[in-house]
Design a protein that fits this description.
Elements (H helix, E strand, L loop, with lengths): L9 H8 L19 H24 L7 H20 L3 H23 L7 H12 L17 H34 L9 H42 L5 H44 L3
């Protein structure tokens, strides 16, 4: 990144890397009218990769001794299936919900794993492409971690909400679900209907917001830490302080990347489990 003919300050570096390639203002976080093209591109590309990986595993599955790839996918399938059986008690619903949960886990894991790429790798490649096309490289923005974009994580959680609404109607019927909206959790009395309905709406909204915000918050924080570590490497000079910062960059980056593997896996698992829990709750009557 170049900034107005001089090396960027730490603040300029962070702001540049937090700005999306899109239709909105730099570093826009909460304007859902903005289209972040980088998040859409990487989400779509990794979604297609997820489908291809699972399709490839299914196509190569054999009844004999499985290879390492098949064994790894089978472990995932068995793990997700056992969780789905314990939460969603309808065998008919699990025919859709279990494969969906598996896809969600792998997809979000891959989205999160983009954080493990060197901070400047893809942005520098994009700057080269943008500059070759005649663009100003100071505006060659690119963020590569879709789950550090609130619009992506909230979009995923809204998708789960729509599935919950679908199963509420499918399992209980439209009349049964509307009856539940007005009679639970406080009881079936007309004086309690407004309070019951308000509580139900608050529950749906709270679950959806927390579902998306949890994933976003963890990945956004992780992305910021990687940027701060990258700044240590950028401070390299032929001096004691510069060399110490460069070594610190290597050590801290390695340690944080190893620890972050656990975080990205855990966040994918938590999002998948909450998806199963919320859909399972849609099958239960109050």
């Amino acid at each position: 990144m170049a900034a107005e003919g001089h090396a960027p300050t730490a603040g300029e570096y962070i702001v540049h890397h937090l700005t999306h390639l899109g239709t909105g203002k730099p570093a826009s976080l909460v304007d859902f009218s903005v289209i972040n093209f980088d998040s859409v591109f990487f989400s779509t590309a990794l979604g297609m990769l997820t489908c291809w990986i699972l399709w490839l595993a299914a196509r190569k599955a054999t009844s004999g001794v499985p290879g390492r790839f098949q064994a790894a996918v089978e472990v995932l399938v068995e793990m997700v299936d056992s969780q789905a059986k314990g939460i969603v008690h309808s065998a008919q619903s699990r025919k859709l919900v279990a494969p969906l949960a598996l896809t969600v886990f792998v997809w979000i894991f891959l989205l999160n794993a983009m954080d493990l790429l060197p901070v400047d790798l893809l942005p520098l490649i994009w700057e080269g492409i943008y500059g070759a096309a005649g663009g100003d490289v100071t505006h060659a923005y690119l963020r590569v971690v879709p789950t550090a974009d609130l619009s992506i994580t909230m979009g995923l959680s809204v998708g789960v909400l729509l599935l919950c609404l679908f199963y509420n109607v499918k399992i209980k019927g439209a009349g049964g679900w509307i009856h539940e909206l007005f009679t639970a959790p406080f009881g079936n009395h007309w004086l309690l209907y407004p309070f019951n309905f308000a509580m139900q709406i608050v529950e749906f909204v709270a679950k959806t917001i927390s579902h998306g915000m949890r994933l976003f918050g963890n990945m956004y924080a992780g992305e910021l830490i990687f940027m701060l570590i990258a700044l240590m490497g950028g401070a390299f000079t032929l001096s004691f302080t510069g060399i110490a910062l460069a070594l610190g960059h290597v050590v801290a980056g390695t340690v944080w990347a190893i620890f972050h593997i656990l975080i990205i896996t855990l966040q994918a698992f938590v999002f998948m489990m909450l998806t199963l829990v919320y859909i399972g709750q849609a099958h239960d009557s109050h």
